[in-house]
Each structure stands twice: as C-alpha cells, then as structure tokens.
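FORM 7B: Structural annotation worksheet

SECTION A. Query
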Amino acid sequence: MDKFFNPSQASSLWQLWEQGANNHPDAIALHDPHAKPPVRISYRDAFEQINAFGAGLRALGVNFGDKVALIADNSPRWLIADQGILAIGAANATRSSQAERSELLYIIEHSDSVAIVVENLATLKKLEPELHTLPVRQIILLSDETPPEGAYNFQQIITKGLGLDLGNPPIQRDTLATLIYTSGTTARPKGVMLTHGNFLFEIEGAQAVLKLKVSEKVLSILPTWHSYERTFEYFIFSQGCTQIYTNLRTIKKDLREHKPDYMVAVPRLWESIYEGVQKQFREQPNSKQRLVDFFLKASQKYITAKRVIQGLNVANLSPSLGDKLKASVIVLSLWAVHKLGHKLVYQKVREATGGNFKYIVSGGGSIAEHLEDFYEIVGIEILGGYGLTETSPITHVRRPNRNIRGGDGQPLIKTETRIVDISSRADLPVGQQGLVLIRGPQVMQGYYKNPEATAKAIDPQGWFDTGDLGYVSPWNDLIITGRAKDTIVLSNGENIEPQPIEDACIRSNYIDQVVLVGQDQKQLGLLIVPNLSALEAAGLIAPDSNLADILPALNDPKIRSLYREEINREVQNRPGYSVNDRIGVFEFLPEPFTIDNGFLTQTFKIRRNIVFERYQDIIVKMFTA
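SECTION B. Predicted structure
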C-alpha cells in the first residue's frame, strides 16, 4: 500500500520531501522532457538537491527569516530552489522572469530580499544597473552559465551545500514561506504573505477531495510561482506523483505522448483545446460535420437531462419528481445515440488528450458553460474550484460525487463561507446573491508591510473579503456570479455581471475573445477579437489573414450581420437572460489579448482595466456614433 505524507502532523513543507524520499525514493518526482538533456529526478534525488540548495544558501549567509527573490519560470530547478529556500526557514518572493523590469525591481526592493535567484544571465542583465543599488548580498543563476564575479550558478550552489546541514531551523506552521505579488494592474503589487501552515492545510484539504497514486502522471503548464499551480504541485508531490513539464508550444504533443492522469489549468487553456477540436471539425467534409453536429446536439440533451436526475443542474438543484421523470425519458431515448457518438467521435477527442485523464482541474476564473458541456460530453471530467492568491488559493472545490457544472464547489474542511450585503455587510439568506467572505486556515497572514490593506481585506473576526459576488445553495455549494468591481451599471440603474454574458458570446465559433462594456450607458457594448480560422473556413476572409490588416474588411455588412446574429442568439439563449443583457453595439479589436501585449495576466485572465485604457477611443466611439 502506498504511504502518503500527512500534512496535519507536519510543521514544514520540508517534511513532505523527507517522507517522499523515505516512502517512495525511486519514484520520479520531476520530469522535464524539453530540457537539454531531458531531466528525470526521483524523490530521493529531489530531496538531496533541495537540502544541498538550502545548505548552499545558508553557507552564503542566508538565514532563517531572510527573504530571497525567486525570479524564474517553470522548471525542475525552480522547484528545487523554492523548497531549498523554504528548507532553511527563509521565505521567497516569487515572480516570472518575463514580468516587466520595473515590477521585478520593485518586488526585490519591497520584499527586503537579501539574495536573488534568477532564471539566467539574460534575466540578471534585465535588472541592471539598478540591482546594484539594492541591499542584495548574493546572486544565484538557475542556469549553468558562467556567473559574474561573486555570483553563483545552480551547480555551484548544489556543490557548496553537499555535505552541509540545514541548521535545524525553527520552522513552525506560522513561519512565512512566500510572498506572492499580485499583478498590480491598478496599483503597486501587494505581497501576499503565505505560511508553511497555509500550504500544509491546502494539501490536507486537497487530500480529502482526491486520492492519487504513486507515479501517476500530472502535466504542468501554469506559472509555477502562482499560488494555484504551486499549491496543486505541493499536493501531487504529497501523493508521490510524477510532474511532467510542458508549454504552449508542445502541449498537444505532450498530451498524446505522456498520457497524463491529471492536469490543472485555467479556463483559457481548456478553451484553446476546445477550439482546436472545433477547428478540426470544421475542416471535415460537410457530411461529417453534419454527423458530428447531430451527435453533439443529442449528447447535449443527454447530459443536461442526466444532471437533472442526479440533482447536479445548477439551475435546478432540487428537481421535482416530474422533472426527474421527464429527464429519465430523455436519457433513455438518447443513451444509445450518446454511446455511438462516443465510439465514432468523442473517443478520438479523448485520445488527442492522451486518453488517460481521470480528472482535469479548472480554476483561476470561471469556466464557460459550453466548455463544461463539451468536456462532459466527450467524457473528460472537470473539477472546478474557487479561491484567490490571498487564500492560498483553494477555498472551495467540486467533489467527484457532487460535480455541479457551473458551480464552484463546496468548502474545504475547516473553511467557512458567508454571503453578505455589499453595503451593510448583513448576512443574506441561502440562495441570495451577495459579497463572498471566507474564513479558514488557508487565509493569508496579510499583505507584506501594508497593514492598511490587510485591515481592509481581513476584518477583526478573520473574515476575508474576496471582492466576488455569489450565493450558497442549501447544500453548501458556492456559485460565483461575478466580480464586485467588474459589475457594469447601466444608466437605468440595472446591474450587469459581465462574465456570464461574455461566456455566452464565446460559444460562437466566430468569436475568440470578448470584453463587455457599458458603464453608465443606456445599453451594453462588446469588444470582439474575432476567430480568424472560423471566418476563413466560412470563406469570408482569405487564408492566413492578419487581424490588423483585415480589420477594415470586417466591417463588411455581411460579416457584421453574421456577428449580430451570433451575438443575439448566444446571449438570448443563455439561462437567466433579461432584456438588459442585450448587446446594443459591438466593435472588432486589432489584436488578440495575450500575455506579451499586456492584456492577459500570467494565468490568462483578461486585464479589463488595460483593455478599457488602451481602447478608450473605440469604446467612446461605440456609444456616441
């Protein structure tokens, strides 16, 4: 029988690796097939490298309670450095090496880092010359490049630490482990203080939801310094799993080749995989397209009816006997069609993802209803969840035995949820929308050196203000409905939550990305990044067209009429549609939202304020033309 790490009896994350090395020393912990040469590190070797890295830092004068800036991206060495820093009781301040230079310098200075661990020489050069004005005593490269005088590379630190001890640091559950800096889209980024205890509790909570097996494979693509990916990684390592590193360029190949059992990602990635499948469908002969469409529509009715029977329909969590009988008739009549669709169509989709997925996990934002439907139809189970960086991040997660699509799950153990009136903070009854407050062992210590922001976020009773709107079902399911600060208020006083309407719009094959606008206007407007491959397949634009070049052509009446029909259909067909949801005006944007152009965060969330700022002229014109 597999032996697993027990986080409830631990005081530090170091013990996770100690027990992993003892319980399954030869199991592979870290596998990077894209490194040159490829990297495979066992639990025994990972533990030895973690200890050597930590001892090497200690030999350089990094002590318990010190801060170390860790500026790098996904790799086994990131994990070794992260855990090595924590093993001596120091804390790391993490960020991507791709982040803006000014932001990285701010983080190094604000975090009081006495040392920095950076991706490579290029990252180090990016920080100069200002870096030399900061009180940084040590510089370490994660690469094997020759470091500048007085600095060290990864192998040199490992060599320095071999044979040395970690100094028996007095790490407790309340010892600071990391500072994770928020994106800083509206102000200076804030350093979220998370402890060893925060992460240990998250591991304990996740273990109560899923039981994994030693050597099961998990594909990793999200930024490893982000709390969502980082916590999930700690959890899978507590179970003896193998983490396989991938990236956006190789993910399709890696899915087929490595056949992962689990994967955690954000909605944008699941949408990208879905769109790739849809593109393949569109490239089929018309007869096959009609067949695929027939099966998908039949299966949509089948899974919707099945959810009603199981009480898993978020719009009807307490179905009547009549509802269940009606749904049963649909399930019985479509069961054979759904199974045939699986054999002829859906199985091929599963094979494209490796064919071994037990569960995929979606978080970091709400996942659109049509994506939930699609993955359920093809037999890939999504477990959604909810949380924020400030809550380490998981507070709620859907269980395998209560997987309510469209919901955000039930609370982890020892986690409390309150729904309050956004103005009075009075508690609201079950089922009524309000501001979501969270209290539990996963809530951060606070914002580093920012007591005012901490007091604003966490009240004296320990309730954390998430800033999100939602409600709780009679069965304690949390359903997030929007972001309080994202709410659009029309001139008639109607409050509109943009996310559900945006999710409805991107169901259209012709729409890639959207942002809803309309604050203080009489009607809503939509900024659209069109799906060029769908327009090409329809013969409306030339192959290999560039969005910026064809933007004027998209104003052709035929194309605008198509988009008007698509928008109206999808918005009006969404559950809960009201006349105020109607999109009055829309415009096309000259480029997609990406991380590189600043419109997306590292976890693929749209930075709305950046969109509003850069396209203010388009927005104004939309409502004044």
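SECTION C. Observations
The CA atoms of residues 256 and 354 lie 4 Å apart. The domain at 7-171+210-256 is CATH 3.40.50.12780 (Rossmann fold).

SECTION D. Sign-off
Analyst initials: ____
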